[in-house]
Amino acid sequence: MFEIGVSARFEAAHRLIGDFGPATRMHGHTYRIEVAIRGPRLQPDGTLIDITRLQAALDAIVNDLHYRDLADVPGLEQINTTAENLAHYCWQRLAQALQGSPIVTLTVRIWENPDAYAAYEDQL
Known about the structure:
The structure is a single chain. This protein is α+β, with helices and mostly antiparallel strands and 124 residues long. The chain has helices at 51-65, 83-97; strands at residues 2-14, 27-39, 68-69, 105-113, 116-123. The protein has a 5-stranded mixed beta sheet with strand order 3-1-2-4-5. α1 (51-65) crosses α2 (83-97). The longest helix is centred in the middle third of the chain and has 15 residues, at 51-65. It is elongated, with a radius of gyration of 15 Å. The two termini are 15 Å apart.
């Protein structure tokens, strides 16, 4: 299986709903998002997909999230913006942008800080 990946950072604020102690108050993170795609064969040009296509798809998401309250972002306004839910939201947007490519799996990992992340992975 071949794999390529890209990453980016963005700043965003959110508050959690439920029994999360101080995290139920508005707070922010410097998020790191990592995206990896896997597939069994390369295209004739020797790539899984053009990595700039993957980076552009990620950049579009990051531009929508950067310096935002996540509760105000369309698609996130009705969910608890845990790292797990944010990873799933980003996965869905990336899967849509990468339709038609020879990818088998897509993984999105959201780091809330240097030591903690949540990820979502599924087949396309």
